[in-house]
């Protein structure tokens, strides 16, 4: 039986969150310490732990079938590879940063200045779109130290919390793009492996949908039931059950996490009581 080969980053936050996603999809991986390859016990999958920057070429060469990697890496080294699914974790920005005491108004201020980065293709493309030319100093490693040791006047690097910039006396001045973990695939996936990927995608979407939703139970007076139900679209429509106390009903529904507090405020304003909110592990639609 065919096995789907998936590449994930060897270590770090992206590695941990990728394995957590697979675990939430019900996939158990036999992963010993320092292993570079592991098999799933209950799913036709083999996991390869690779350097993030090497993964796009492994996909092109057909060494792996699919991969979870940062969108920033895909933009830098794998623009020819498709984004199969956005995964919503390991979010960051790719940004320009300069020393705190340097005045910055626009990208024109970097004319004739050296820019240290691990993302030369991304930087060149961005500067070309702005009608400028970048003078790049390629660094693989701690890019943020470059201005402090006189290697560069500015950097382009990933920014998560901004604490690393702060520690190195730098400030973020321009965001090239926002990035998150994505699922990508080889251009030449066989039919049997595509079937396995479709099954995996179904599970991933169920996990992500549950993560981004809340299950809500509340009590509603019947004379305001129509208005309260209109605020709760649910998956198809809310579930409404009569309560033992006459004139009241119990309403069950699902709310998007992004709209949660606005909807709750409206429900309370329209007479809803005893609102109970529960996390959703998975949503199978």
TrEMBL record:
Ranges annotated as spanning the membrane: none
Coiled-coil blocks: none
Recorded GO CC terms: cytoplasm
Pfam family, one: HisG_C
EC number: 2.4.2.17
Span of the signal peptide: none
Pathway: Amino-acid biosynthesis; L-histidine biosynthesis; L-histidine from 5-phospho-alpha-D-ribose 1-diphosphate: step 1/9
Principal subcellular localisation of the protein: cytoplasm
Cofactor(s) listed: Mg(2+)
Residue stretches making up the Histidine biosynthesis HisG C-terminal domain: 211-282
Compartments reported by the entry: Cytoplasm
Catalytically driven reaction(s): 1-(5-phospho-beta-D-ribosyl)-ATP + diphosphate = 5-phospho-alpha-D-ribose 1-diphosphate + ATP
Name of the gene encoding the protein in the UniProt record: hisG
Highest taxon above the source species: Bacteria
Designated name of the protein: ATP phosphoribosyltransferase
InterPro entries: ATP-PRT_HisG_long, ATP_PRibTrfase_cat, ATP_PRibTrfase_CS, ATP_PRibTrfase_HisG, HisG_C, N-reg_PII-like_a/b, N-reg_PII/ATP_PRibTrfase_C
Enzyme's top EC category: transferase
Family statement drawn from the similarity comment of this UniProt entry: Belongs to the ATP phosphoribosyltransferase family. Long subfamily.
Annotated ATP phosphoribosyltransferase catalytic domain residues: 51-205
Function description: Catalyzes the condensation of ATP and 5-phosphoribose 1-diphosphate to form N'-(5'-phosphoribosyl)-ATP (PR-ATP). Has a crucial role in the pathway because the rate of histidine biosynthesis seems to be controlled primarily by regulation of HisG enzymatic activity.
């Amino acid at each position: 039986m065919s096995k789907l080969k998936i590449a994930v980053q060897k270590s770090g936050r992206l590695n941990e969150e990728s394995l957590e996603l697979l675990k939430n999809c019900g996939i158990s991986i036999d992963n010993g310490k320092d292993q570079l390859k592991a098999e799933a016990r209950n799913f036709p999958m083999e996991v390869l732990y690779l350097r993030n920057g090497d993964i796009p070429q492994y996909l092109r060469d057909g060494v792996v079938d699919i991969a979870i990697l940062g969108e920033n890496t895909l933009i830098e080294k794998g623009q020819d590879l498709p984004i199969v699914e956005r995964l919503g974790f390991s979010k960051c920005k790719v940004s320009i940063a300069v020393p705190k005491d340097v005045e910055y108004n626009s990208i024109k201020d970097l004319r004739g200045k050296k820019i240290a980065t691990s993302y030369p293709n991304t930087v060149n493309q961005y500067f070309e779109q702005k009608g400028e030319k970048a003078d790049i100093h390629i660094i693989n490693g701690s890019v943020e130290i470059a201005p402090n040791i006189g290697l560069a006047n500015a950097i382009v690097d990933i920014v998560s919390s901004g604490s690393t910039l702060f520690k190195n006396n730098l400030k973020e001045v321009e965001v090239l793009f926002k990035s998150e973990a994505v699922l990508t695939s080889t251009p030449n996936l066989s039919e049997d492996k595509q079937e396995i990927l479709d099954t995996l995608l179904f599970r991933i979407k169920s996990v992500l949908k549950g993560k981004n939703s809340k299950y809500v139970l509340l009590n509603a007076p019947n004379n305001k039931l129509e208005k309260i139900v209109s605020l709760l679209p649910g998956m198809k429509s809310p579930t409404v059950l009569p309560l033992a106390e006459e004139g009241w009903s119990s309403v069950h529904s699902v709310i998007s996490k992004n709209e949660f507090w606005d909807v709750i405020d409206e429900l309370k304003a329209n007479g809803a009581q005893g609102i109970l909110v529960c996390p959703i592990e998975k949503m199978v639609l």
